[in-house]
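Batch manifest, entry 17 of 40.
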Amino acid sequence: MPPAGVTDNPFRIGVAVRGVFFTDRADETARVADTLREGGARLLVVGERRVGKTSVLLRSIERVQRAGGHAFLVDCGTAGSAVEIANRVLSAATGALGRDWAATANDLSRRARGRIQLGTDLSGSPTVSFEPTFAADATAHADALATVLDALDARAKRERRIIGIALDEVQRLTAILGGEAGEWVLRGLLQHHQHLAYVLAGSEPTVLSAMQGHGRAFYQQMSLLAIGPIDPAHFARWIDDRSGRAGVVAPGLGAACLALAGPRTRDVTQLARAAFAAALSAGVTRPPRKKITGPELAAIGFVDLVHEQADPFRALWEGLARTRQQVLRALAVGDTGLTSEAARRMYGLGASGVVTGAIEALRNTRLVVRAADTPAGYAFDNPFFRGWVIENTLPDLGLALPATHLAARSAT
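Output type: structure tokens
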């Protein structure tokens, strides 16, 4: 139990957040919700991982449903085939629409080459699944998804309603359908539905933005909404306010969390959550109250997170080639360009071509990202892995820095 006067941890991670756990994004939420209510509308939502994209989608769907509309989310990220995605669409639609699934089953049976199965889940809610007769034919899997979407469009037309469908991590679907050629397949699946509204969302901005390039399948076919980091000043105030209302007053906590873990929304929130938990353990909330500043509390939370994830970080590090390890050490210190003479001497880096190859490999595995405001031009994707590298690998080079050390930023 939290101490008297202290509520449960006011920061959530690991789930798409709603209600008071959600902040900002009013314009983005409104635009997605408006799209989900407009028949034939198409919107592409692009955002890096962990910036809160899925939370925006779910909040928008809730807004549509509260207004009496119909919308649902389908996560394509872990699907292995278009048939799996087709059944995920059916499952989500069942939950969102509920009644009269016999009608949809009939629409499916008229179009499908396969078996339609009606049932109930453990809670007693209806379920519908589709097993195509051509399941072994990978090239024909798109027909299964087309069948399901056509049936939903037919039902929406008959009932004079609009059904909004948000397809999250849609880049996985296009890959399943055949990469760039799969984009044309997807366009063909969606373009004739006038009673369905589609929001396509994903976390690979380069791939998704390319879908709208000249000569590509979705050129001038969709509106684009980019979701970036939350405004830092707003986010910092929100963290301070949430923490204070929950019983932990630590001036500057929000700004410190952003400095150490930003800019990704989830990373910052994860640190705020750890800092709040650390405050409870440190007696900040109990009389006689210990006084602690926000930066001090954020630093404690940051180190706690680094230590919590030490085993997977170590396994990750040990699986890297030496040149990649050395590049990560250099990025962790962050005081010089990677191809400079000083960096090559300090970190044992090879020729610039070798360094460039190591960086590309680290980018492909999403360990580093571009960061134009740093001397090296790159930064760690995971701020807590950065802290682990600083604490556990820099002493091998005779460097002793705190896990919270931040790479230098260039003046802008």
